[in-house]
């Protein structure tokens, strides 16, 4: 069992937690207001299904686990930073949201590279 096989369940766990967070952030944005909660929710609700697809398609997309982890970590940083700023007026750390955004973009690019990475021979 390789490292990707051991890490792969983390993609599913993160996808579920990020999806649930997206729904909660959308509800908070609707009921409490807050300009930062809508974008945080949107990123969660956009990336959770993508991560689920990468989890499910790991046999067809060779770099799926890495792409899913990058998207997940990026989404947690991005949405977490925005939510923390909205609720507490502070940041996770300087440049947390932009760092998360870059990680999400790299995750998408890694997924796209899957088109050029041959599948393992069975």
Automatic annotation (TrEMBL):
Transmembrane segments: 36-56, 68-88, 100-119
Signal peptide: 1-26
Coiled-coil ranges (or none): none
Keywords: Membrane, Signal, Transmembrane, Transmembrane helix
Superkingdom assignment: Bacteria
Protein name: Membrane protein
């Amino acid at each position: 069992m390789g490292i990707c096989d051991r890490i792969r369940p983390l993609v599913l766990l993160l996808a579920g937690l990020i999806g649930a967070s997206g729904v909660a952030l959308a509800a908070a944005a609707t009921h409490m207001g807050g300009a930062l909660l809508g974008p945080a929710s949107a990123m969660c609700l956009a990336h959770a299904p993508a991560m689920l697809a990468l989890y499910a398609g790991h046999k067809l997309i060779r770099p799926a686990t890495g792409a899913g982890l990058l998207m997940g970590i990026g989404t947690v940083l991005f949405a977490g930073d925005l939510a923390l700023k909205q609720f507490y007026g502070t940041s996770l750390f300087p440049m947390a949201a932009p760092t998360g955004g870059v990680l999400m973009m790299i995750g998408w690019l890694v997924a796209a590279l899957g088109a050029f990475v041959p599948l393992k021979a069975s």
